[in-house]
Amino acid sequence: MLGLLAKKVGMTQIFDDAGRLVPVTVLRVDPNRVIAQKNEEKNGYAAVVLGVDDVKPGRVTKPYKGQFPEQITPKKHIKEFRDFDKEVAVGDSLGAEVFEGCRYVDVTGVSKGKGFQGVMKRWGFSGGRHSHGSKFHREPGSTGQSTYPGRTFKNMKLPGRMGREQVTVLSLKVVKVDLEKQLLVIQGAVPGVYKGLVLVRVAVKK
């Protein structure tokens, strides 16, 4: 496990070495501070806790502030990485250099919320005929049975709230690592909104 917290800057397109136009997502890596380390003897597992985005000490509760060492300003976002594949110490600051030489990454984020949607948008139902005489256009259709069992089964695909769920996209190609601007340029799209926080880790399958 080797990863960092980053922010989604946006999408653009670049030309690769073969002259093909490639859509890419740009991620900015703010300094990831190591705020704690966990080990087998004390915690039962090995892990590193990283935090990003400073918060004024007066704006956090004492229990929340208590998990940060004295020399480290409280962070808005913290994340625990188990079995971190890099030697670090509490107080270290990590950046985009972690992904130097890495070819593929997995990106986890919270997808865009799309509100309450019908079955055609949410589940891809085809809907009914659009002709004038038809009275069945975008409805879900029949969902239950007759007298027995006389109810709708669980997990039916029905209208409801869509999006705003944790999504992981696997094996995205790393096009460029800009150490000067602390940017990661990744081929394809990643989940999340503009300036949304995402977790980037070295790909587990590739």
Structural description of this entry:
This protein has three helices and twelve strands; from the N terminus they run E-E-E-H-E-H-E-E-E-E-H-E-E-E-E. The mean pLDDT is 93. It has helices at 40-43, 62-65, 119-123; strands at 3-15, 21-28, 32-38, 47-54, 75-82, 93-94, 104-110, 113-117, 160-163, 166-178, 183-187, 197-202. It has two domains: 1-29 and 96-125 and 158-206, Elongation Factor Tu (Ef-tu), domain 3 (Beta Barrel), CATH 2.40.30.10; 31-94, Double Stranded RNA Binding Domain (2-Layer Sandwich), CATH 3.30.160.810. It has 206 residues and is mostly beta strands. Helix content is 6%, strand content 42%. The strands form three sheets. The protein has a six-stranded antiparallel barrel with strand order 1-2-11-10-7-12. Strands 5-4-3-6 form a four-stranded antiparallel β-sheet. The protein has a two-stranded antiparallel ribbon with strand order 8-9.
Biggest sheet, open or closed, and with what strands and sense?
6 strands, antiparallel, barrel
As residue ranges, the low-confidence spans are: none
The helix/strand order is EEEHEHEEEEHEEEE
Q: Provide the helix percentage.
A: under 10%
Task: Compute the separation of the termini in Å.
Answer: 13 Å
When the domains are counted, the total is: 2
Known CATH architecture of the largest domain: Beta Barrel
Rounded radius of gyration (Å)? 23 Å
Which homologous superfamily in CATH is the superfamily of the largest domain? Translation factors
Overall average residue pLDDT: 93
Helix vs. strand class: mainly beta
Number of strands: 12
Helix tally equals 3
Task: Give the overall shape, derived from the CA principal axes.
Answer: extended
Strand order of the largest sheet: 1-2-11-10-7-12
The share of residues in extended strands comes to 35-45%
CATH topology of the largest domain: Elongation Factor Tu (Ef-tu), domain 3
CATH class of the largest domain: Mainly Beta
